[in-house]
Design goal:
InterPro entries: Kelch-typ_b-propeller, Kelch_1. With 371 residues, this protein is mainly beta. The chain has one helix and 30 strands.
Length: 371
């Protein structure tokens, strides 16, 4: 009897559909339902049908107050709002904000139940810190612990959602704030920021290697490793995200869009421009945004915010623009860049803009939940 034919290997899994994902970002400004009160709220974006939805306000923030410098991350079906500084905006529009306190509070929003709950507080109140998720746990490192101090801290901690508890981690080798957290190759990276050596007295401004460095926390060994020149800029990064095993960035905290997407080469310790990612800018004219939705290049339309979110091999850029000559209207636009596009392929896609009443300001970068 002849041998039976070998079974065919199973087909590779299909890439996840964008319908399985939602992107969430934190906004501050005027609430959609009121033009007289300021607060923070969460908005979600559905890439499947290019639709926006207002989740609702972040609880625990009084009227005329805003929360800044906090972290927003996603674990399973939940969004976590971690730390931050509470500010008072005053009774008049445009009033200068006053820093009131640094918070240790952690609030959780379940996408499944649509309910908020309060979690165990941070061990150290902090704002403008690095925060990322690794193996289902939330890591927080660096930041500032006082509104009266201009220095960062080196302390770090980890949150265990199943136990609703924070645990201490070894301190970093540097003190830093305005740093960015990202998980890559099984390690927690704290990149850039305003950093000093851990033994600095804080009275002398230096431009040592720490100012353009990163630190990597090996979760299995429980140790930090200094990564000199990983960022190479004295200006802190805006966002760094991991897509398909690579790190991507589009700018810094002063200019979140520098005209192209960059990827990190870990072997050479350098950031390179990604082929096909160059775009002069993300601008739309008020006429095209309000009628046909077709994008045009128009420097007169000012971008208000820009944040990016990874889904599959796509980098989604969620942007808001102020319409020229319009004081009470703005437009939201989503651009998607395919990191897997081959040379010569069109890698960019632009969704139809959504015109909105009022104007919103980004307070927390995107996080993504797979439904």
């Amino acid at each position: 009897m002849g041998s039976l034919p070998s079974p065919s290997p199973p087909p590779p899994p299909s890439p996840p559909s964008s319908a399985e994902y939602r992107m969430y970002m934190a906004i501050c400004g005027r609430t959609p339902s009121s033009h007289t009160k300021f607060c923070n709220w969460i908005e979600s974006y559905n890439p499947w049908d290019n639709s926006w939805n207002c989740v609702g306000p972040i609880p625990g923030i009084p009227e005329r107050h805003v929360l800044r410098g906090f972290a927003m991350v996603a674990v399973a079906d939940s969004i976590y709002i971690v730390g931050g500084r509470l500010c008072y905006r005053g009774e008049e529009d445009g009033a200068e904000e006053v820093n009131l306190a640094v918070l240790a509070t952690v609030r959780r929003y379940s996408v499944t139940t649509r309910a908020w709950s309060e979690c165990a507080a941070l061990g150290t109140p902090r704002f403008d810190f690095a925060c990322t998720v690794c193996d289902g746990k939330i890591y927080a490192a660096g930041g500032q612990i006082s509104v009266a101090s201009g220095r960062g801290v080196s302390s770090a901690e980890v949150y265990y959602p199943a136990e609703d508890a924070w645990g201490p981690l070894p301190g970093m080798r540097t003190v830093r704030y305005k740093c960015v957290g990202v998980t890559w190759e099984g390690k927690v990276y704290v990149v850039g920021g305003f950093a000093e050596g851990g033994d600095s007295d804080g009275r002398t401004v230096t431009f040592a290697a720490e100012r353009s460095s990163a630190e990597a926390f090996d979760v299995s060994r429980g140790e930090w490793e200094l990564m000199p020149r990983m960022w190479r800029l004295d200006v802190p990064p805006n966002q760094i995200v991991a897509v398909d095993g690579k790190l991507y960035s589009s700018g810094d905290c002063l200019n979140p869009w520098k005209g192209h997407v960059e990827s990190y080469d870990g072997k050479l310790n350098i950031w390179n421009s990604v082929d096909g990612s160059r775009r002069r800018s993300f601008f739309f004219s008020s006429s095209s945004a309000s009628s046909s939705g077709s994008p045009v290049t128009n420097e007169a339309t000012q971008r208000i915010y820009l944040t990016m979110a990874p889904v599959g091999t796509q980098l989604y850029f969620l942007a808001g623009y102020r319409l020229e000559g319009e004081d009470h209207r703005s437009v939201s636009v989503v651009h998607a860049f395919d990191t897997s596009a081959g040379q010569g392929e069109e890698a960019w896609m632009c969704m139809e803009p959504t015109e909105e009443e009022g104007e919103k300001e980004l307070c927390g970068h995107c996080c993504v939940i797979q439904l």
